[in-house]
Amino acid sequence: MKPLPREFNILEIERKWQTKWEETGTYHFDARDKKRPSFSIDTPPPYPSGDFHMGNVLNWTYFDIAARYKRMRGFNVFFPQGWDCHGLGIEVQAEKENKVRKREIPPDKFRKLCEVLVNKYIAIMKEAVVRLGISIDWTTEYRTMNPDYWRRTQLSFILLHKKGLMYQGTHPINWCPRCETAIADAEVNYDQREGTLHYIKFPLENSKDSLMIATTRPELIPACVAVAINPTDDRFNKYIGKRIIVPIVNRAVQIIPDETVDPEFGTGVVMICTYGDKADVKTVLHHKLKPTIILAGDGRINQNGGKYASLTTSEAKKAIVGDLDKQGLLVKTEKITQEIGTCDRCESPVEILELKQWFMRTRALTDDVEKTANKVVWYPDYMKTRLIDWARSLDWDWVISRQRVFGTPIPVWYCKNCGEVILADESWVPIDPKLENPRIKQCPKCGRTEFVPERDVFDTWMDSSISCAVHAGWPDSKDWRRLFPADMHPSGIDIIRTWAYYLMVRHLALFNETPYKSCLINGMVLGLDGRKMSKSLKNYVAAPEVINKYGADASRQWAAAGGATGSDIPFRWPDVEYAKRFMTKLWNASAFVSGLLKDYEPDEKAGYALQPLDMWILSKTEKLTQAVTEALDKCQFNIAMEEIRNFTWHVFCDCYIEAVKDRLYKPEVYGKDKRRAAQYALYAVLHRLLQLLAPIMPHLTEEIYQTMYAEEKEFKSVHLSPWPIPNTKLVDEGAEKEGEAIMAVITEIRREKSEKHMPLNTPIRKLTVYAGNEESANTLLKGKEDIAGTCKIENLDILPKEGEGREISLRGIRFVAKY
Ligand SMILES: [Zn+2]
Ligand SMILES: [Zn+2]
C-alpha cells in the first residue's frame, strides 16, 4: 500500500479530481447499459443570476448526495443540468448593465444583450457547481434560450392548445408597472409596508347624509364601481340597495352587501375599485359589476381617469387627496402597516389590470394535482401539503403570456382581417412568428392572406415546467419513457408553489402522468442573524468565499449536517471550520494507518486471529453501515453525516487506533497473527468509512481511496465502487460488549493520566483491576495484552473480586495504578 503524505492541500485535491472525473466521464449516464436500473434526477435548471450562494450549496449538495448514493447502490444515474435563461430578472439586469430600456431598442438587439449576460452568468455558476464537486453529467447541458429548447416549449403549447387547455382571455392579471408585463401569482411576494389610511366622506344620493370610507388608495377613486357593507353590520346595513356618490368623478354607484367586508377594518364601509386588490376582483365577479379600468400598462392613469390622466399613481394620489381636502371631504389620515403585493424581480408594487392574455386552464386540473401529489414520496412527507394547499388556493388560471422580449415566442399569428388565431403546426417549430409568416396560403376562415404575429412571449416557467419530459429525451427519443417520470425532483421549500406545482400541472396535462416519483425538499439558508440569508439584509455569505477558504468537502458537510431535510439551515462559520477539522482528523488517521499497513496483504482465505477489540470495531462498523444506509434511503443527510462523523472521530480514531497501536508496533510481543488481525480491521474499517463518506465528501475520500486502495480494489473510483451492504454476520453483540468493557478500562486509565497531567506514555509499574465478578474478569483477560500495551503497564493483574480504587463508570470495575 502506498503511504499517504502527511500534509494535504484540499483545494488542490479538489481541483485535481474534478478535472479527472470530467476527463474520464466518471458520472456519465450510460444509455446503452440497460442491465442496471436507471435513476433519473430532474435537476431544476436555475436562473442564471451570476450568483452562487449558500442556498445553492445546500440544494445542490442534497441532490448530489442522493445521486452519488444511488450510483454506488448500483443505479445507472442520470443527472442532467440545464439553465433556465428567460427570466424577467435577466431583462431587468440587461437594462441596468447596458443603460437601455428594452422598448427603446430593437427586440433582436435586446435579445442579444440578454444572451451575452446569460452566458456570462452561466459560466460563473457552472464553475461554482463544478467546484462544489457536483456529479453532473455535463454532456446533457442545455439552455432554454436555444431554439432547440424553444421547439420543445412551443410543441408542448401546441399540444395543449389542441387539447383545449390553452385559451386567450381578458381577465384581471397581476401586472408589474416597472417591468411592464403580466406576472403570475407565484411571482408576487407579499411585503409589509407603511401606508396612509385616508378617511373620506362619500355623500349618499339625494340625501344630506354621507358615509365615511377609509382607503389607502384614494388614487383609485375614479375606478370605484360600488360600495360594499357587511349585511350583518347593523350600523350601516340599512343603506344596502341605496346609491352613493363617488367624489372626484361624481358618479352614483350601488351600495351592495358583501360578507367578506370586515366591519372592524377602517370604517366598515368599503369602496370596490377595479382593481385595488384580489378581493375587489372577487367582488366584481360575484356581483357582475362592470369594471372601469383607469391604469395603463406603464402604471400611469389612462383617459378614464379624466383630469388625472397621464399622472403616475403617486402623482394622482397627491392630486386627488388635495382635491378631496379642498372639497372638505377628507376627514383625517392615519399611518398603518399594510400588506402589499410586490414584483418578485424588481420589488415594485404590483397592480391588477385587465388585458388580453394567454392562459393555461390549470384550475381544471387541481383535483388531479392533489391526487397525484398524494402518491408522490416527499422528503420530508409533510411538504406535500404545501403543494396541495397552493393548488387549492389559486383563484385564477395560469397567465402564460408575458409582454417581454427575452422569452420563447408564442407560436401564433392572427388573421389581419378576421382575427382568426393561426396556431403553428407541430412541424414548424422552433419558429418566431415575428420573423416568419405562418406556412399557409390563406386564412382558413376568411381566405385573406395577411397575418399579424403574436408579439408576446411565454412565461419562463413554460420552459422549465416540462423539464422532466425534456430531460428524459422527449419528444425526440423513442426511449424517453425509460427516464420518465423522474425518480427524484429536488426543490427548495420556497419554490414548491412554482417548480413542483408547474411541473405537476404541465405534465399531467400533457401526458396524464406524474412527472416525478419523489420530491426532495431543502429549506432556506439563514444568515448569522437568524433571518433568511439575502444580500439586502447584509447577512449574506457568497459560496466561493466559503469554498476558497475551506474547500467544497467542508462546505458540503455543513449542508448535510446543518439540520433535518426540509428545515431551514443556519450558516455558521464554526460549522465549516469543524468540518475542516474533521477532514484533517480523517486525513491524519488515514496517513497513520497507511504507514502501519505498508507490509499488509489482504488475504481472506488465510483468515485472521481477531481479538475482542477487532471484533468490537468490525461489529460497530456494520451497525454504522446499517444506520447510514437507512438514513440515506430516507434522505436524512444530517443523520448520516453525524453518525459517520461521530464514529470516525471518537470510535475509530480516538479509541480503536489508539488501542491497537502497540500491537501494530510490536509484533515480537504480540505475535504476527494478532498484529495482522489489527491490520485487517484498520484496512477494512477505513475503507468502509471512505465509502460511507464518499457521497458527502467526494474529493477527500477519492484522494485517500486512490492512494491507499485503488490498486487492490478493482474500481477506478470510490464513486464507482458498490455501496457496502451491511454484513449482519459481523454484527456480534457479545463481542461488542466485551470490546466495550476493554475499551472502557483503557479509556479510564488514559483519563486518569491526563487528569494527573502525565504524558499518556507514562509507564505504570503495577496496575490492579478489580473486575467485581468472574465474567467481567474473563472478558478483560481476553484484552489483557491490548490494555497493558496501550496503557504502558508493566504488571497488570485482573482479579474477579471487588476492591478499592478508581471506578469505571457504571461497570462495577475498579482499578488501582502505581506509577
Ligand atoms: Zn417588476
Ligand atoms: Zn381571416
Q: Given the structure, what is the number of helices?
A: 23
What is the helix content? 25-40%
Shape: elongated
Strand content: 15-25%
Radius of gyration: 35 Å
Assembly classification: single chain
Structural class: alpha/beta
What is the CA–CA distance across the termini? 39 Å
Give the overall pLDDT as a whole number.
Answer: 94
**Cofactors, ions, other ligands:** zinc ion
**Main sheet record:** 4 strands, antiparallel
**Stretches where pLDDT falls below 50 for ≥5 residues?**
none
Beta strands, count: 29
Keywords:
819 residues, binds zinc ion, elongated, alpha/beta, single chain, four-stranded mixed sheet, 23 helices
